[in-house]
Each structure stands twice: as C-alpha cells, then as structure tokens.
Design goal:
By secondary structure, this protein is mostly beta strands. Helices cover 8% and strands 54% of the residues.
C-alpha cells in the first residue's frame, strides 16, 4: 500500500454553509482513503408531499 500522508489521515471537506442569527455554521464530512463521511440526509414522504432535510451543522470557528 502506498499513499500520501494527507490521504491516510483524512481531511475535512465542507459541503455546505449557513448563517443563522448572524452566526456562521458549516456542514463538513471527513474523507480518507478508506472512508467517506456522510453529508446531509434527505427523505421524501410522498404520501404527505413532504421533504425531510437533516443537516449536521457546527460553528465555523470554535467548537
């Protein structure tokens, strides 16, 4: 097996951003050679004409 250190340790990929009440948030996933993180979840409930959209937001700065 061979690869660069960045691919073996993984990295963060930002897949979305939002601003709520002036606070900036991001949605990110972790990606590495053997793992792709899971972004937002979206579901369709046809009987109710409804979309269910779930995001995992965290502050852009701090924890």
């Amino acid at each position: 097996m061979a690869g660069c250190e960045k691919e073996l340790k993984g990295y963060e990929k930002i897949v979305g951003t939002a601003t709520i009440n002036g606070q900036k948030y991001k949605e990110s996933t972790r990606r590495a050679w053997n793992f792709n993180g899971y972004p937002s979840k979206i579901g369709l409930f046809e009987n109710y004409n409804l979309f269910h959209f779930l995001v995992r937001l965290s502050p852009e700065k701090g924890k």
